[in-house]
Amino acid sequence: MSRPVVTRFAPSPTGYLHIGGARTALFNWLYARGRGGKFLLRIEDTDRERSTPEATAAILQGLAWLGLDWDGEVVSQFDRKDRHAEVAHEMLARGTAYKCFATAAEIAAFREAESAKGVSYPVFLSPWRDADPATHPDAPFAIRMKAPRSGDTVIDDQVQGHVTIQNATLDDMIVLRSDGVPTYMLAVVVDDHDMGVTHVIRGDDHLNNAARQAMVYDAMGWDIPVWAHIPLIFGPDGKKLSKRHGAVGVHEYQAMGYPAAGMRNYLTRLGWAHGDAEFFTDQQARAWFDLAGIGRAPARLDFKKLENICGQHIAAADDAALLHEIVAYRAAAGLEALTGGQENGLLRAMYCLKDRAKTLPELLEKAEFVLASRPISRDEAAQKALDPVSRGILHELTPRLQNVSWSKENLESILTGTATAHGLNFGKMAAPLRSALAGRMVTPSVYDMMLVIGQIETIARLEDAAA
């Protein structure tokens, strides 16, 4: 009987959540959730100088925004250092590791001598590997793993295929330093084993680590997890993603107003495919996602595709959920909070705002008519639309709207009738109406705006503009 799937995301808290890390977390989350398994979170905070509580908080916040919930408590790798040391000593007792008394100066001298001979990657062979314990000095020692000296280590990777590493190219890795501090390579394996991780899905920059880590599993007699090393994300120019390409932190995408569902969809599709499907729901992503669909080539970030996918998710979103996301976006972007009245207005208007907005700022731009209050401020284009002729038409129009039943059919009849009486098509009259109602030219339809803000407010705004 196969074990339940357990995946993990294990970021280092030395900065914000990078978009590449977010996609790694997402792949782990999808794989576990689609199989009824567990998705665990571990903070690899052993680098005490660079790890900060602020960075940890930023990572948790980024995952929460993306909707990637984890099971159980967040694990701190640093807090488990005693357990890591315990395993190093257990390896010593098993004979799969040994005490090495070589000093840092001796190792440096060896590397310098090898480099002088033109050796690019010198492999230090410790003289203490097979030394008689009776010859051990009373001095500080590191614990090194006894790596095989010949043959190959093969990583059977679900994305990269069979990867072969010659054992002669690997030294006896230190698992516990002479100051008693465990190494990262040991800590990762011990944590993954103790947490019951069955599938290690991570960036392919860790592929070389897998060979060393597999040796630790073997040394302890533990089951090796399924490996899946996914390609990195590149910028549009095919180079490693960096600040020069624009936003690289997940928090930046939230502050720019991309909806979380759109980001999940886009990042899932970035380097993974399910037939020709581009737009899909979370439920479909969980059902479809598998390791076989991950490509080997680096994926390229494409902002146009991102916006297109986000636009489709905005259009398909539940109104109340979208309002909740808008409120969170404004907080992340440092914008003024909406009033209760503005939130209610947005909910009423959502049906005519969602269709063509690719980001939340675009939606809010169209929503200005319901967010603004009188007197309506106008941009330059809107001001030009209010010439003396159009003001006269607005002045003539307001009495006709006083006692009418407020429906689209009645409004169409009055507005088109007024336009025809002045020898205009409705398009010519729409511009001053947009100016009067919204103070800008990019808006929903005139009828939708009038229906959303209501009869009293519509007439008041038209009278203001006519005056």
UniProtKB/TrEMBL annotation:
Subunit structure as annotated in this protein's UniProt entry: Monomer.
GO molecular function per UniProt: ATP binding; glutamate-tRNA ligase activity; tRNA binding; zinc ion binding
Chain ranges of the Glutamyl/glutaminyl-tRNA synthetase class Ib catalytic domain: 5-307
Locations listed in the record: Cytoplasm
Family that this chain belongs to: Belongs to the class-I aminoacyl-tRNA synthetase family. Glutamate--tRNA ligase type 1 subfamily.
Chief location category: cytoplasm
GO biological process: glutamyl-tRNA aminoacylation
Domain Aminoacyl-tRNA synthetase class I anticodon-binding stretches: 342-465
Record's catalysed reaction(s): tRNA(Glu) + L-glutamate + ATP = L-glutamyl-tRNA(Glu) + AMP + diphosphate
Source organism per UniProt: Fertoeibacter niger
Cellular component terms (Gene Ontology): cytosol
Keyword check for Aminoacyl-tRNA synthetase: yes
Motif ('KMSKS' region): 240-244
Ligand binding (ATP): K243
NCBIfam families to which the protein is assigned, alphabetical: gltX_bact
Keyword terms of this UniProt record: Aminoacyl-tRNA synthetase, ATP-binding, Cytoplasm, Ligase, Nucleotide-binding, Protein biosynthesis
Function: Catalyzes the attachment of glutamate to tRNA(Glu) in a two-step reaction: glutamate is first activated by ATP to form Glu-AMP and then transferred to the acceptor end of tRNA(Glu).
EC code(s) of this entry: 6.1.1.17
Identification of the protein by name: Glutamate--tRNA ligase
Motif ('HIGH' region): 11-21
PROSITE patterns: AA_TRNA_LIGASE_I (PS00178)
